[in-house]
Request: fold
Amino acid sequence: MSDDRSTEAAGPLRIVHCFRNPIGGLFRHVRDLCGAQARAGHMVGIVCDSTTGGAFEERLFAELSPALALGLHRVPMERSIALSDLSGARRVHRAAKPLSPDVLHGHGAKGGAYARIGGTFLRASGNRVARIYTPHGGSLHYDPKPLKNRVYFMAERVLETMTDAFIFVSRYEANAYATKVHPPKPIAKIIPNGLREEEFVPVQPAADASDFLYVGMLRDLKGVDVFIGALALLRDRGHPYTANIFGAGDDAERYRAMVAELRLDDAVAFHEPTPARIAFATGRVLVIPSRAESMPYIVLEAAAGAIPMIATRVGGIPEIFGDKSDRLVEPGSIDSLAAAMEAAAANRAAAERMAADLRDEVRQVHTVDAMAAGVEGVYRAAISRRRGAA
Reply:
């Protein structure tokens, strides 16, 4: 917000969310925040990439549009670090400047970089905007040993000088930043992802549901190749289980070829991205074979729907499972995943009881209202600190 206006302690804020790719859990997180913030009386807008997303994402933007009083603004954003990033940040600055934001909230590594650099440009023109960053995993998943990855962490240290507050979605994410970058100096708070109350209605599988189900991005980070490998291993052991795979991504065609090569065509069906609760009804056990995660919405959504679930012991997933985290499987292991799948298929009643228990526990912690209230508290603390310093 410009210097000729002031924001009261409990008054409405002008909030702009910036991110690159409008898909997956990050996009879900932003949509939920936008809706909750609009209901609380704030004016909200979005700046995101113009080159990604498809028909499904366009429908989601259309559904969200009533909440976007400051509009939807799409500009080209590069995926990897490039010299053009400065131009990208300038485009974000030009899109955000007429909106006079009190808060510019960057999500993900690239959205976070553009928001913080663009927000610094806004500062230079007299706007005391609060620059907020939520990594959502991003570069924090990288191994810190290779030189090219250390470049990302060096960039994070530089960008921290342009950051007024961090919001981490899990303890894992906060610890990863402190270990791989350094302990953050600005305001930093852990605020877990939340769900809407209507999502805590159990989902019943359809009569023709497959044995197993995957819902998410189609890329190796999510372990889809491990899931397909486990299905092939179990088939060879005399268990011809069926599976539905929902999602899109850079590795989709490779997974289709893998299914054909392993002669699983009759057992595995691929589907375009679909709302999670609709997809959940098409399978009896959800498999999350990820190699890395932060605080995955798909795990929370499945828990809320009382969906029997097999997940890996990565990122923030153990934080969701709590005292049940000993049932998580090792990431990247076809044998471990296959064993868990075989056990779940053999004892569906036990898997359903565990799912019901997990639903009750998640309901106590992971709500949209708690998430939005926590985020707003960080916004106001960052605004107060910045304006006090000014």
Summary: The first strand starts at residue 14 and ends at 19. Residues 14-194+367-389 form a domain with the Rossmann fold fold (CATH 3.40.50.2000).
